[in-house]
Structures are given as C-alpha cells and as structure tokens.
Amino acid sequence: MKIVSTVSELRGELRECREKGMTVGLVPTMGALHRGHASLVERSVSENDVTVVSIFVNPTQFNDKNDLKNYPRDLEADCALLGALGNIIAFAPEVEEMYPEPDTRVFSFAPLDTVMEGAFRPGHFNGVAQIVSKLFYAVEPDRAYFGEKDFQQLAIIREMVRQLGLKLKIVGCPIVREEDGLAMSSRNMLLTDEERVRALEISRTLADSVTFAENNTLKATKAFVESRINATEGFRLEYYQIVDGDTLQPVEEWGDSDYIVGCIALFCGKIRLIDNIKYKEVK
Ligand code: PAF
Fold first, then answer.
1. Ligand 1: does its nearest atom lie under 6 Å from the Cβ of 58?
2. All structural domains of the chain
C-alpha cells in the first residue's frame, strides 16, 4: 500500500496505473475506518485494478465546530486496516492541500438537499459536494463507492455527477451492521458503554417497524417509530421521515411509490447517529 498526501503525487501514481491500462476505484472516507469502510474498499478492489482510499476530515461539511474537533482520527490504524485489503493508494492530505483557498462554489441539489440532513445540517451537502467533486477531479476514477447508511448523501452524489456531466459510475453499497444490529459508524466509538447499549434501540425499532408496516398505514408506522424513539431515555429525535427512495420526498401512503425508505437522525447523548431501513424496493 502507498500513502500519498498531495494531489500531484496522487496524479503521478495514477498516471503510471493508467499507462498500464489499469482501472481505478475511489472510496472517499473521513478515516476512523471500520468494517463498513472495509466492505466498500473490498468491493472496489474486486472491481478495479487499483483503489484510492481518501482519508480526509473535510471541514467544509461540518456545521458544528465541536463535531469537527471531536471527529475521531487515527491514520496509523486506518493504514493498518487498508494494508491488508489489496492494491491500495491511501490519499491523506492536509486541509491546505484540498483547500489552498476557500472554496466558494455553491451547489444546489433541490429538492434532494432541502429535506432531512439538508434541513438539519445547513451547508452540509454543499461541503460534501465541494470535497467529493475535488476528489473526483483529482482521481478521475472509473467507479466510486459510497455506503447506503448515508442514504441522502448517496442520492446527492449521483445528482452531482449528473449535473457536472462526469463519466464515472457511482456504486451504492449496503449498510454494514454490528452483530447486534447497530449500523457501523465512525461516531459509534464516541459513545459511552451505556449509550452504546441504548443506541441498539435504533436498529431494533427500525426492524420492528418493517413488521409493523405489514398491517398498518404509513402514517401509523411513522408514529410507531417516533413514539418508540421518543420513549427511550437519552435519545433526542431530530427526524424520522418515510420517503421515496429516489426523490427523497415524504410519501403519504404505501401505494405512492415502489421504493420507500425510512430515514432517521437522532442524538444519543451528545452523539448524532443516522440510520435507515427499506420498506419497499421493487427493482
Ligand atoms: O461519508 C463520508 O464519510 C463523507 O461525507 C465523505 C463522502 C468522505 C466526504 O467527506
């Protein structure tokens, strides 16, 4: 595994790969890698000759300074995990490398970015689009891999690729869960032992709501999730929305769409967690 920290070094490495006719996969990350990230990297390694894994805690997507300050960072452990996974170039730049000057670009993905995370984290998706587009321009990957845990992010990145007319393929990968069901997240390591146990109620409630939904209306299912989450001590629900999986707009009835997903965001103590569940996906 190679580790590079500048765009010019990265381009140099990739030029050599391209000259040999190799295909390139990109897995953008903010580090603190876990099995969820590993599954994206493994998928990329199986579909491309070389995989670039970017490790960069992107300041422009944080609307909360404390969240940025406390975001877990462990480059050594990240490299140890990646070293075992295949032909990988780890790209770990400093902030000045990615933002030599402030990025003043303003993206609009309405209505995808006006709901859920977009409503609760103003500017977040603009920051994500700034960094991910910079990575796409630097790497020019054939394919890029994103987890479905960040369901809205994945839809927005697909839309950004469409708007910018980029040629790469976006590959969405299923949520990876801990054995007990908690969706894997770098933020999980910030939970206290007690919060970690409590956080289980998120995936449990979402799973139970799928059974509940079989005999109940969409509105009742939304209320079922909201009341279970609100009844859990130490949780503060930001939203639970049941949306069309393509447009991300709320749906009223189960019959309104062939692709229906429930998306949740809440604070478990001070840690903000997100998760989602598919109620319906007709392919
Ligand atoms: O999903 C993430 O970890 C980040 O939003 C991403 C895509 C790496 C951009 O910083």
1. yes
2. 2-173 (3.40.50.620), 186-275 (3.30.1300.10)
282 pLDDT band (50/70/90 cuts)?
confident
| CB 29 less than 6 A from any atom of ligand 1 | yes
Name the pTM for this structure.
0.97
**Residue 30 Cβ < 6 Å to ligand 1:** yes
**Which residues are tagged catalytic?**
37
Q: How does pLDDT run across 138-165, given as a tens digit for each residue?
A: 999 999 999 999 999 999 999 999 999 9
CA of 118 from ligand 1 middle (Å) equals 15
Classify each residue of 175-205 as buried b or exposed e, where b means 16 or more C-beta atoms within 10 Å of its C-beta.
bbebeeebbbbbbbebbeeebbebbebbbeb
